[in-house]
Each structure stands twice: as structure tokens, then as C-alpha cells.
Automatic annotation (TrEMBL):
Residues 36-70 form the HTH psq-type domain. It comes from the Eukaryota. One of its GO terms (cellular component) is nucleus. The lineage of its organism: Eukaryota, Metazoa, Ecdysozoa, Arthropoda, Hexapoda. This is Transposase.
Length: 408
């Protein structure tokens, strides 16, 4: 970090160090590697002794002795934060993300490394809170010449959500991904929020009153839940994430069968909770199915970990990422499932609020969530199938969405 002073104002310029190698030979290697190879070959052929080869090729005797006998041939400098195999796995992840249409920025890559180190239990003293700096990123790019940095062309969100070409390109990619994938092997996942507020309702009051009020305890707190549905109409067990530092047994009782529970400080899904959902909910479902699988969702790069990519490779799972701001057109959960389900949630929450005081306790949330799912009942399968059909996924029919989105 450098500081530029202009008058009374100090401007901090944050940038990686521009290291310049000092001219001249390295103090611990003042010989030509080519001559070292020739000296080793001569000694191993038996034409020269180590002492004679050392004098003839100007190689230190101890150095030549170590190389001839393969003793203590260690690399110079401190060991890298990631081993070669680990870096190769990271490169593979980056290439897959770019292929999916969501290339990562410098910070995204460094964040993935931070999550990997944290999960592995490693503490890298050269990194701040295990987050690599820009120096590491610069060296990482230099070690992998098959990667390069380019400016990404941005598409305005207001256009990306409605552009015919964006949707058409999405379906062209989806067609390839759906090849030989049965409907049961297609999953759509999405994270949604359950607020501690049943919302506004219409009531009868005296004419002339500007504002109508009713007494009911509400709060701004909310709970995140990951839902997943399959192309043949099945609902996977929900995955609940509370906003808390600790998870208590009472928060996991009385819920929907096989539901999973977790917690984060923010109350939203992060890389660790998404990976846990993928491993404990999505993978067990896929492992009981034959043939290729497909999973459709958004915001994947913010949740992506190296382990998720590896599991996808092992289990023949393909990912399709939705274009930005297109979930109201292309995501089955948003199109046909969440609306009636949230209506059921608000109705059940309102009944509970009328009988109880205070905010909704976490010990009660699993029970109300279960009641909301069961209240949808037999319509659940029909809504799921209708969602996949309306999004043109199962059966595959892009015209269903393209006609809504207008012609080019």
C-alpha cells in the first residue's frame, strides 16, 4: 500500500507490489543449469568423477553431489499455499464457470481459496484471514498461462431480463444440457425468504378513515429456506438457514420429514451452507437415479466451492445458470410454486399470530413451515409440473417463453 500526499489530503492507493528482480546471478545458484545437466550426465556415464566434473563445468561440488545422488533436492522459497494438484482443481473450476457463462473476477477466485483453506483447517500466515491478496492472484495467473484476464462486456440488467436474444441463447444452451436427461433427473433450486409478517389484508372500517390498523406483533426478522423440485413433480426436503451463531436442537423439531437445518451470521446462504445443501439434499436424490442429471438455478458463483464441482464431475451432473433477472420467466419455483405456497404460509402465520403474542420463535418455525407445505397438498405436484411446462423445460418448448418475451 502506498500513500500519495496532496496538500493536506492523504490518498491511499491500494495495489499489489510491483516486485522487480535484482540484476545479477542468484547467490545460491551462480551456475548455468545447462552445465549442471551435462555434469550430471558425465558422472552417471562414468566418464568423469564428481570432483573432476565439478571443476570442469564450474558446478559446486556439494551441489553436484546432491543432484547425482538425488539427495535433498528441495525447491527454493516457502511452500505454496496450495499444492499443484489443488491449483489444478481450482483452474478446472474456473474454466467450467467460464464455460457456463459466469466467469469469475479476481475477488471471486480469492474467496474460493479462502473457503477451501478454512474448510481444510489450514491457516496461511501470509494471507489476511486466509484471504489471498492480489500478489498471490498475480502469481497464480503467471503459473497458469492457459488462463488470461479480459474485460467482460456487460449487458444492462433492465435489458437482460427481457431481451429476446438472451432468452434464446439460454434455451440453445439448455437444449444441449437436456440431451438424454429424463424429467426426474432435472432439478430446479432456489432460496426464498420467510418473513415474520403475514402482510396486509383488507378490512372494513368507517368511511373517511385514511389508515386502518390492526393489533398484531410482527418483526423484520426472516428465515431463509432452500427449496428444490424435480421435473416429474417431486418436492425435495427443504433446507432451513437461521440467522444465528449457534444451532439449537429445539429449532429442528416438528418440521417436514428429512428437512435439514443450519445457521449463518447473516441468515443467508453462503458457500458452506450451499455446499452442505448440495451434499446432503441434492446428491442423495441424484444418486438414486441413472443417467445424466441437470440442476438449474441462479447465483451459483456466489455459492460455488471446489467440492461441489468435483461432486458434479463424479456424478454426471450438469449445471445450467439462469440469466440475471429472468427468474420470473425461466425458474419453475418462481413461476408456479412459490406464490401459492407463500399464500399458504401467510395464512398459517396469521392464525398463529392471532393466538400468540410476540415474534415467531425459531422453535415454532419448523412446524409452521411443515403445515404450509401440507396445506398446498395435492396441488403441489400439479403446480411443479405446471412450472416446468411454463418455463419451457419439461417438456422442452422454448416457444412457451419466447412468445411471452416478444419477437426479435
Amino acid at each position: 500500500m502506498g500513500t500519495v500526499k496532496r496538500g493536506k489530503v492523504d490518498l491511499d492507493v491500494i495495489m499489489p507490489r510491483n516486485y522487480r528482480k535484482q540484476l545479477g546471478p542468484r547467490q545460491n545458484r551462480n551456475y548455468d543449469p545447462v552445465y549442471l545437466e551435462r555434469a550430471i550426465a558425465a558422472v552417471r556415464r562414468g566418464t568423469l568423477s564428481i570432483r573432476t566434473a565439478s571443476e570442469q563445468y564450474a558446478i559446486p561440488y556439494t551441489t553436484l553431489h546432491r543432484w547425482v545422488n538425488n539427495n535433498n533436492l528441495l525447491a527454493y522459497g516457502r511452500p505454496p499455499a496450495l499444492e499443484n494438484l489443488e491449483e489444478e482443481k481450482l483452474v478446472k473450476v474456473l474454466l467450467i464457470c467460464a464455460e457456463w457463462g459466469f466467469p469469475m473476477k479476481s475477488f471471486d477466485i480469492r474467496y474460493i481459496v479462502q473457503q477451501y483453506l478454512n474448510k481444510s483447517g489450514k491457516r496461511e500466515k501470509r494471507f489476511s484471514d486466509n484471504l489471498p491478496g492480489l500478489d498471490w492472484f498475480k502469481s497464480f495467473m503467471a503459473r497458469h498461462p492457459n488462463l488470461t484476464i479480459k474485460f467482460a462486456e456487460n449487458t444492462k440488467r433492465v435489458r437482460a431480463a427481457v431481451t429476446y436474444e438472451v432468452v434464446e441463447t439460454y434455451f440453445a444452451n439448455l437444449k444441449q444440457s437436456l440431451k438424454d436427461v429424463p424429467s426426474a433427473n432435472v432439478l430446479n433450486y432456489d432460496e426464498t425468504n420467510f418473513a415474520d409478517d403475514p402482510g396486509a389484508v383488507k378490512v372494513v372500517v368507517k368511511r373517511g378513515i385514511k389508515h386502518a390498523h390492526r393489533i398484531m406483533d410482527t418483526s423484520k426478522s426472516s428465515t431463509s429456506v432452500m427449496f428444490a423440485i424435480s421435473g416429474d413433480g417431486n418436492l425435495l426436503p427443504p433446507y432451513v438457514v437461521y440467522k444465528a451463531k449457534h444451532l439449537y436442537p429445539g429449532w429442528t423439531e416438528g418440521g417436514f420429514p428429512n428437512s435439514r437445518y443450519n445457521r449463518t451470521v447473516s441468515g443467508w446462504f453462503d458457500a458452506n451452507t450451499f455446499e452442505d445443501w448440495f451434499v446432503t439434499t441434492a446428491l442423495p436424490y441424484f444418486r438414486n437415479l441413472d443417467g445424466p442429471k441437470l440442476i438449474i438455478g441462479d447465483n451459483l458463483c456466489s455459492h460455488l466451492t471446489i467440492s461441489v464441482i468435483q461432486e458434479c464431475e463424479k456424478n454426471n451432473i450438469r449445471f445450467v445458470l439462469l440469466p440475471p433477472n429472468s427468474t420470473h420467466l425461466l425458474q419453475p419455483l418462481d413461476v408456479a410454486y412459490f406464490r401459492p405456497f407463500k399464500r399458504s404460509w401467510r395464512s398459517i402465520l396469521e392464525k398463529w399470530k392471532l393466538k400468540n403474542r410476540g415474534v415467531l420463535p425459531k422453535t415454532v418455525f419448523p412446524t409452521l413451515l411443515k403445515e404450509s407445505i401440507e396445506a398446498v397438498g395435492a396441488k403441489s405436484t400439479a403446480n411443479i409440473l405446471a412450472g416446468f411446462k411454463a418455463c419451457g423445460i419439461v417438456p422442452f418448448n422454448p416457444d412457451t417463453v419466447l412468445q411471452k418475451n416478444g419477437s426479435p
